[in-house]
Amino acid sequence: MCVIAAVSLFVAGCGGNGASGAGETVVAAFYPLAFAAQHVAGPGVDVVDLTRAGEEPHDIELSPRDVARILDAKLVVYAGHGFQPAVEDAARERRGPTLDVLDHVRLRGTGDDVDPHVWLDPRRYAQVTRAIASALGDEPRAEPFVRRLDELDRELAHGLRRCDRRTIVTSHAAFGYLAARYGLEQVALVGLAPEAEPSPATVARLADTVRATGATTVFTEPLVAPALADTVAREAGAVTATLDPLEALTPSEEDAGADYFRVMRENLAALRKALGCH
């Protein structure tokens, strides 16, 4: 709240404008929301992603410039339920419209245990995209993007239809929507917060769980240290592979021009290999 209280001086020094002028900026809290907003925002609207490539969105800290953009934007798009508390706090201080995308989809979990990773289900992500377009006053602009999501959904459904195994072991519980959509079961090493550090006894129990599922792969994530997954996989006699929750792009992905669709198709390839799909 100290940053928010002090930011009025920053805004005044900038003439009250964000990156491209009052009423011309959409601020999105992290990559999937920014990516969708970029595809539905009209000409002349700049989309600002508050979470930079390589950053863990859960841990984001807002600079005075970030807060000024939030206060001054045409629209702020974020995911609530404590996914990014700093963004939620700043959004509550603004007078303009805000969009909590989790208000527009059916969620998994309740209260503090709500899973925010709705973008990993292309159908829910389509609902998010339409909500953003509607908040910008032009819902039809979402339809080309939604058609691409429909195509991706069909690819995922087809690619994961016939597999020898149906259980995915993941670093943290980010893949519940993807698993539910395509008939998989997620076993997460830790909960919704990836920074949790289980005790040695818990690691041993997790390794037993992996062996009991028959899983041959423990999935790590690009933005989370792989030590826990590596240890559990080694004790369980499994291998590791990468499954990306797409909370943010890595710097190398950004440099290579990767986007949501490319990474989701890479996730599909990783899942097919780990699950023995045919």
Q: In words, what does this structure look like?
A:
- This protein has 278 residues and is an alpha/beta fold.
- It folds into two domains: 2-153, Nitrogenase molybdenum iron protein domain (Rossmann fold, 3-Layer(aba) Sandwich), CATH 3.40.50; 162-275, Nitrogenase molybdenum iron protein domain (Rossmann fold).
- 44% of the residues lie in helices and 13% in strands.
- The protein has eleven helices and eight strands.
- It has a four-stranded parallel beta sheet with strand order 2-1-3-4, with helices on both faces. It has a four-stranded parallel beta sheet with strand order 6-5-7-8, with helices on both faces.
- α9 links the parallel β7 (217-220) and β8 (239-242).
- α2 (31-40) crosses α5 and α6 packs parallel to α11 (260-275).
- Mean pLDDT is 90; it is low at 1-23.
Characteristics:
2 domains; alpha/beta; 4-stranded parallel sheet; 278 residues; Rossmann fold
CA-CA gap between termini: 53 Å
Mass-distribution shape: globular
How many structural domains? 2
Strand content: 5-15%
Query: How is the biggest beta sheet arranged?
Result: 4 strands, parallel
CATH hierarchy class name of the largest domain: Alpha Beta
* Average pLDDT, all residues: 90
The CATH architecture of the largest domain would be 3-Layer(aba) Sandwich
Tell me roughly what share of residues is in helical segments.
Answer: 40-55%
Biggest sheet, spatial arrangement of strands: 2-1-3-4
Strand element count: 8
Discrete helix count = 11
CATH topology of the largest domain: Rossmann fold
Q: Return the string of H and E elements.
A: HEHEHEHEHHEHEHEHEHH
From the alpha carbons, calculate the radius of gyration and give it in angstroms. 20 Å
Q: Spans with pLDDT under 50 lasting ≥5 residues?
A: 1-23
Coarse structural class: alpha/beta
**What name goes with the CATH superfamily of the largest domain?**
Nitrogenase molybdenum iron protein domain
